[in-house]
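Tokens as discussed.
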């Protein structure tokens, strides 16, 4: 018999009515003869509310206690959904991340799944139970609760699908699939029937929150057949796979990421080893650096500008201020009033002119580009934050209006 993993996000389980709606989807899958393992997120805005509560107590909550707190959100939805399934007459059991065998590394708030001991889940499946697992959480080697980072329930689901060798991993959410842009922002965004792991990974990493980027990384690594679909409408969704059939689409989507900050270092000495020192300090603070721009040297000095996640900005500046005197950095500035807009698509590899078309759309919309970064299948630009939505709409129009 085949096993299917189904994951339901916060909006899909936000209240009793939605919980029963989800229970019926699961029950239908079970009735078709499948074993079903379910992963749930916390209901509605629960995670945000819990974060707020913690900040009412302290500005800097202890990270271990924060994980202990946030993990409770998923426990509520797992227990309630299991009650709903039982009420409909099905055999079901809820398991927390640790009961389900999730072992992670020790990084509170952004832990990675190291291993899943699947015995308990397999025992419950043998008893014909539908197994409802709390997403987003596990235990580290000190037996402390860890969470996988915002949106991490997608990764819990894919990890389970990988170890249980599921036939499919279905990510049910509040939109019917992956679109050419956030359908809430771009009304005529187009639903994609399929997308490659690489394209989806870029889109997810560049701000399309529909899938947690690590879930896509893991799906690709373990060849998990991933599907994104709506829990509210029973229509076909988007399949994420290794290769897509030949198609005309030059790009697959436009994404926006507001979670960026730009740091500029002015007047660095123009000599070997300086960039190494700057970025090794960032690395030692576990801060990811994204787009990097170095100016042409002048009078023995140069400038370096780069972006980091907004949450890391204050720490990055503080760390750089500490090395500024010894390195000879004259000035450090940080700007959080920016956003990153990107296009993604394997089609751009073999088609010249994609960047020009993107820049033309921005130029016509009178949007100035501060920084540019490219890879084989993506182009990102950094622009003023207040122009972000306008940029997404203009770029989407340029690529998709005549499709
Ligand atoms: P869940 O709670 O189910 O995990 P999320 O809020 O994390 O749902 O992700 C779904 C949301 O992602 C959608 O409501 C949509 O606004 C947003 N989104 C952003 N970009 C895209 C895209 N390209 N395609 C589909 N949805 C997108
Ligand atoms: N509840 C967590 C969050 O809101 C995890 C998830 O929903 O995937 O980020
Ligand atoms: Mg999500």
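Sequence:
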């Amino acid at each position: 018999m085949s096993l299917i993993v189904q994951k339901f996000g916060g909006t899909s389980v936000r209240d009793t009515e939605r919980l029963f709606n989800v229970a019926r989807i699961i029950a239908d899958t079970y009735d078709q003869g499948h074993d079903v393992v379910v992963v749930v997120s916390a209901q509605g805005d629960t995670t945000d509310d819990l974060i707020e509560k913690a900040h009412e107590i302290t500005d800097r909550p202890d990270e271990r206690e924060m994980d202990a707190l946030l993990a409770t959100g998923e426990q509520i939805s797992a227990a309630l959904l299991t009650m709903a399934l039982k009420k409909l007459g099905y055999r079901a059991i809820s398991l927390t991340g640790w009961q389900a065998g999730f072992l992670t590394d020790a990084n509170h708030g952004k832990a990675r799944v190291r291993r899943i001991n699947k015995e308990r889940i397999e025992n419950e499946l043998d008893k014909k139970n539908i197994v409802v697992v709390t997403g987003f959480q596990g235990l580290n080697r000190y037996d402390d609760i860890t969470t996988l980072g915002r949106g991490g329930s997608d990764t819990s689901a894919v990890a389970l699908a990988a170890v249980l060798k599921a036939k499919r991993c279905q990510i049910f959410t509040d939109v019917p699939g992956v679109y050419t842009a956030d359908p809430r922002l771009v009304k005529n965004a187009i639903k994609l029937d399929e997308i490659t792991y690489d394209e989806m990974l870029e889109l997810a990493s560049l701000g399309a929150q529909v899938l947690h980027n690590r879930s896509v990384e893991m799906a690709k690594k373990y060849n998990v057949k991933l599907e994104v679909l709506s829990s509210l409408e029973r229509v076909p969704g988007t399949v994420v796979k290794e290769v897509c059939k030949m198609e005309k689409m030059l790009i697959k989507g436009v994404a926006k990421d507001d979670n960026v900050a730009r740091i500029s270092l002015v007047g660095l000495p123009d000599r070997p080893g300086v960039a190494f020192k700057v970025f090794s300090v960032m690395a030692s603070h576990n801060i990811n650096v994204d787009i990097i721009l170095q100016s042409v040297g002048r009078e023995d000095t140069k400038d370096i500008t780069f972006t980091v996640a907004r949450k890391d900005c204050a720490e990055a500046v503080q760390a750089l201020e500490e090395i500024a005197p010894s390195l000879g950095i004259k000035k450090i500035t940080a700007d959080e009033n920016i956003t990153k807009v990107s296009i993604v698509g394997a089609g751009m590899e073999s088609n010249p002119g994609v960047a020009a078309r993107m820049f033309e759309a921005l130029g016509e919309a009178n949007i100035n580009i501060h920084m540019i970064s490219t890879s084989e299948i993506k182009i990102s630009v950094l622009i003023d934050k207040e122009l972000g939505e306008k940029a997404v709409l203009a770029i989407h129009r340029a690529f998709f209006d005549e499709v």
